Amino acid sequence: MRLRSRRDENEQGSFKGTAGRLTLNKNKMKHLLKVIVIIAAFFALTFLLLKTTGVLSVEQIKMWFIAAKELSPLYVGGIVVLLLFSDLFIAIPTMTVITLAGYFLGFRYGAIASIAGLIMAGVSGYWLSNFLGERIFDFLLKKETARQEANLDGTGSL
After folding, report:
1. Which of 80, 57, 52 is nearest to 68 (CA)?
2. 115 membership: H or E segment, kind and range
3. Which sequence spans correspond to the domains of the chain?
4. Nearest Cα to 98, choosing from 85, 115, 86?
5. How far apart are CA 90 and CA 41, in angstroms?
6. Predicted confidence (pLDDT) per residue in 88-142, tens digit
7. Please, which residues have CB within 8 angstroms of residue 114's CB and are 6 or more apart in sequence?
8. Cα 151 vs. chain centroid, distance in angstroms?
9. What percent of the chain is predicted at pLDDT more than 70?
């Protein structure tokens, strides 16, 4: 005699308890999508502000590189690293910066500067989310029930 598992029951068409799980998953996704939309809107807003004010455009970045071409490659590499690092906070056309870095610095030095900037942004983003992520998450979702429902693994982390 074989014991029947929940998997066997589900395969045979008995979906006992599944509706409750689906509702719970929809609630989790609803609150998680709210956080994603808020963060995406924030970055889109910074991009639109920079684009409409003309503070940072692709042409301006190109002009900086052209002016910096007369400088030492270390300065140009530093500009690339800073631009890629600042992409962590404001929307910067990353691929344009990387492409122009390769054009003005050459493959080897452009790749080194680009990788350094991307690693700095990645490590800093990880560090910030590790230390400030919970506070930002609590700020974005005010209700305790919403925070619990958006919690994916049930341990307090996303």
Report:
1. 80
2. helix 94-140
3. 15-150
4. 115
5. 12
6. 888 788 998 999 899 888 999 999 999 999 999 999 999 988 888 778 777 777 7
7. 80, 84, 97, 98, 101, 102
8. 18
9. 70
